[in-house]
Amino acid sequence: MTKPFLLFLARKLKGWSNILREFLYGMTVHEMDSDLRKERGHLDNLFMLSIFGDLVGLPLLPPYYSMRLLPYIVPFIERWKRGLLREKDLTDFVGTDLG
User: Fold this and answer.
1) How far apart are CA 25 and CA 17, in angstroms?
2) Could you state, in order of their start, the residue ranges of all structural domains in the chain?
3) Which one has a higher pLDDT value, 82 or 95?
4) How confident is the model at residue 91 (pLDDT cuts 50, 70, 90)?
5) Which of 35, 55, 89, 92 has the most CB atoms in a 10 Å sphere around its CB?
6) Is residue 73 within 8 Å of 52, Cβ to Cβ?
7) What is residue 74's DSSP assignment?
8) Is the pLDDT assigned to residue 41 strictly greater than 80?
């Protein structure tokens, strides 16, 4: 009789601890985490543009270096080209931080 009650109580406490953990994460670290993810995305785009700019019509480096790095970058090329060549709208810039 007490064992099912203890299991039920443990599940409820675990659920509340997850809720509390997510709430504290949102209050303290979420903004910094999202800013770091945006910066990483911008740096990835800059790296890909400088190395593989010739795929979109902007050759910056000789093809030798591009070919040496190509095996490591192949899984990301389609997503990068799609994101780079996507049309930008005014609403894309409204949600960004101006500072």
Assistant:
1) 12
2) 2-94
3) 82
4) low
5) 55
6) yes
7) G
8) yes
Neighbours of 61 (CB within 10 A): 13
What are the tokens at 5?
Answer: 């009650």
* CA 45 – CA 48 distance, rounded (Å): 5
User: Rounded CA gap, 81 and 49, in Å?
Assistant: 9
Max alpha carbon distance in the chain (Å)?
A: 74
Closest Cα partner for 96 from 42, 56, 59?
42
Distances (CA, A) of 29 to 14, 39, 67, 81: 21, 15, 39, 31
Under 8 Å between Cβ of 80 and 87: no
Radius of gyration over every alpha carbon of the chain, rounded to an integer in angstroms: 23
84 class by beta-carbon count within 10 Å (0-12 exposed, 13-18 middle, 19+ buried) = middle
